[in-house]
């Protein structure tokens, strides 16, 4: 069967959908990728997939821009006639489903977390929620469409919107390579606190920096390692001047984009992600868990799937730097507890979130949908 992934960015496909695509290829699917092609185009070809350039504009809500994307997708889908179309994220679900109206094929609509539209209270987000909810309900309820979610909270949200339970499939996370990412001993010297993720407001990097200041004020010599860069297509991207100022603070190291994330967890003993919400199951936490690191995160959907209080880490409220500092300090003072949580985190990553496990589940879904068709 011919499978078409529709993803906004090539880097996102390579980072978050590769386990699924590789499993599908191994199972005999002819895999194509429609996305905005940049630095990842060659990698997509080397992996044996066929790329198709699409003019996605994530930062734009322009009707003209959306129409261009819809037209390009419809042209590709007419030419390829894919058996299964796998839309990744809310924007591609909406634009891709409109493009596919009247065309054959099954659509897997993957919600990789509900994102800023569903968690933000700014006027634009509220307007998009009000206007978009009926459209999402219509598109996800069409014949041949299923919704794929990464955590049970998102499944409940879709049900609340009026999506039939039978159309909602829950597969935990997007798969982490537990063979490549393995536990390593804690590094010697001052304790390292690692943050990995896009530098946007929703990821909570400001809260991490504030918590680190509090810890330094208490006499801690903990080092904060920030891995990531601003996402310029996201309207809440962190300002470059703020990032530069953080890099000048005592004990803070800016790592920028890290190609091999294992290098971060070889330097950091604790993983933190004080996300504001809108997550699927955060890849940053999955990778930290695979590397055997204890975690501190916010008590929001997605994060609490991998950070189990008292087992793999600690949960704190959103936007609460003192609580985050207290949780980090609890782990900093207890090496045995860090080791216990880290081992349990690794075990959970292997048992529930591995690339092999997620890949098998997704291929089974594709096959069942193809057989049903």
Topology:
Elements: E1 2-9, H1 10-16, H2 18-26, E2 30-36, H3 41-46, E3 50-53, H4 63-80, E4 84-88, H5 90-99, E5 106-111, H6 115-119, H7 123-140, E6 145-149, H8 152-161, E7 168-170, E8 192-196, H9 205-217, E9 223-227, H10 240-247, E10 252-256, H11 262-267, E11 270-273, H12 283-290, E12 295-298, H13 303-306, E13 313-316, H14 321-332, H15 335-352, H16 355-372
Parallel strand pairs: 1-2, 1-4, 2-3, 4-5, 5-6, 6-7, 8-9, 8-11, 9-10, 11-12, 12-13
Fraction of residues in helices? 40-55%
Contiguous helical run count: 16
Main sheet record:
7 strands, parallel
Give the DSSP E fraction (strand runs of 2 or more residues).
15-25%
How many domains comprise the coordinates? 2
Question: What is the C-alpha radius of gyration, as a whole number of Å?
Answer: 21 Å
Query: Which structural category do the helix and sheet elements fall into?
Result: alpha/beta
What is the strand arrangement across the widest sheet? 3-2-1-4-5-6-7
Would you identify the regions where 5 or more consecutive residues have pLDDT less than 50? Answer: none
Overall body shape:
globular
Tell me the number of strands.
Answer: 13
Mean pLDDT: 92
Run of helices and strands: EHHEHEHEHEHHEHEEHEHEHEHEHEHHH
CATH architecture of the largest domain: 3-Layer(aba) Sandwich
Tell me the distance between the termini. Answer: 12 Å
CATH topology of the largest domain: Rossmann fold
CATH class of the largest domain: Alpha Beta
CATH superfamily of the largest domain: Glycogen Phosphorylase B
